[in-house]
Amino acid sequence: MDGKKKFVRSRWVFIYRRGRDDFAVFNSKNLEVFFADQEAIDLIEYFKEPRTINEVFSFFKSKSESIIAKLIDTGFIVLSSSDESDDLRKEVILEEKNRRKTIGIDSKLNSLRIILTERCNLNCNYCFVRNREMKKDDDISFATVKKGVDLLVSLNKKEDLEIQFFGGEPLLRWDLILKTVGYIGRLIDKGRINNAYYGITTNGILINQEKSSFFKKYNFLVSVSLDGWEELHNLNRCDINGKGSFKDTLKGLKIIQKDKNETGILVTPDRNNTERLSDACEYIIDKLGFKFITINTPQPIKGNWDVDGAVFSQQIKKCFEVAKKHQAVINSFGTRILYALNDKKPLIFSCSKFGNNFTATLTPQGKLSPCIVSWQHGDFLDSLDKFTYQGVFSDWKFKSPYYFRKCLNCSAMNVCGGPCPLEVYELDKFSKKIDHQRCKFFKDFLEWAIWFKG
Question: Which of 11, 70, 389, 436 has the most CB atoms lying inside 10 A of its own CB?
Fold first, then answer.
């Protein structure tokens, strides 16, 4: 170790304290975490000004050499001559270049969310699907579905695919589900692809024994929207006449539960239920017996989040505790933070990923959207006939992170990556303001996740 070179505390360092002498030092760039005592914190703080290693040794007598070596190795202390912001800029440019170069080779579009219809038998308050009153004639055609599947097959020869049936309420077009699964089955028999994994997102009302048996036969993941007990669920999930859907949804759930289908419950947060999310999870797990719950992300489709980010974070933490108590699984916006910290893999360019690959939305009009939340904006849609990875698709998936300069001063910059491509699109096109509730969620949950990891 060169004792004459000057080092300084990295600009990416954030220090969290718990109790009297427990500290977690976090590097927001590389996601390294260093758990420390007061002596180590004093040592790090000493590097607020450029110091040589020899200076430090003369001031700190005990165990400083091994700690300094670790701090340098993990990027908490850097050479004072470093331009950390410029280094990050260059790394992001290189990462984007490499990802664009390898898309279609190392990472592919292998998952398709098919919008069978935008019609629905409910009229939920928070739904982001805008055209629920369309006519049946506006539903997707099987010819369009087939063309979309054929594109996926051409991009993933002899490999696995994922097909997600979505809406509106996809079970309104049961006929299309049967035809699609049958068609893909024939492709598997011919050796065109290896296997297909199916999923469906539904309100559960139209589930009957026939559909449940079909789901079981083809190993569907059946995701059913349920926000908790009857009163809580019916706050948002009603039909066009305002009648709550809880009883009808529960009836469908009991059928697939009896058949032991792979089932996930989807809970959607909004300002009416955010403070009761953990209670809802407790009810769904303990009273109804479902052990896999996804808590949806508040979507920016109609403006900014309408939930308090800090309250949402606190509730997600409680949901994890509920899941731990019952040996259940909670998937949420916070899960990505835990995975990022565990893998030390910054979450930039992470839009709509399926494994190492990507998901796109097939619209009823036969267009391909890189976004799985919004597919109505014509200026970022691809034609199925002219799809190419380069162009609209890559530009969306590899939208530059850290949209705002001040993102670089945030502890959560690499578990967030800045606004998602949809948010950037709306910020640019509609002059929408930055969503501070989203920021509040990430910063609050990150600190908890760091201690949870330890």
Answer: 389
- In this structure, the answer to whether residues 65 and 110 fall within a common structural domain is no
Phi-psi region of 414 (alpha: psi -120 to 50; beta: other; left: phi over 0): alpha
| pTM for this entry | 0.93
Q: Cα–Cα–Cα angle for 409, 306, 277, nearest 5°?
A: 100
Q: Residue 376: which domain range?
A: 106-397
Instruction: Specify whether 43 is located in the same domain as 119.
Output: no
Q: At 370, is the secondary structure helix, strand, or coil?
A: coil
For residue 88, being part of any structural domain is answered with no
- Judge whether 430 lies within some domain: no
300 and 165, same structural domain? yes
> Over the stretch 420-429, which tens digit does the pLDDT of each residue have?
888 888 888 8
- Domain assignment present for residue 453? The answer is no
**What is the total count of domains within the chain?**
2
Distance of CA 390 to the CA centre of its chain: 23
Q: Is residue 211 part of a domain?
A: yes
- Render pLDDT for 114-133 as a digit per residue (tens, 0 to 9): 999 999 999 998 887 755 55
Q: 310 burial class (0-12, 13-18, 19+ CB within 10 angstroms)?
A: middle
- Contact by Cβ (8 Å): 186, 153: no
User: 436-453 and 335-343 helices cross at what angle (nearest 10)?
Assistant: 50
**pLDDT at 225 (0 to 100):** 98
- pLDDT tens digits for 412-449? 999 988 888 888 888 888 777 777 898 999 999 999 99
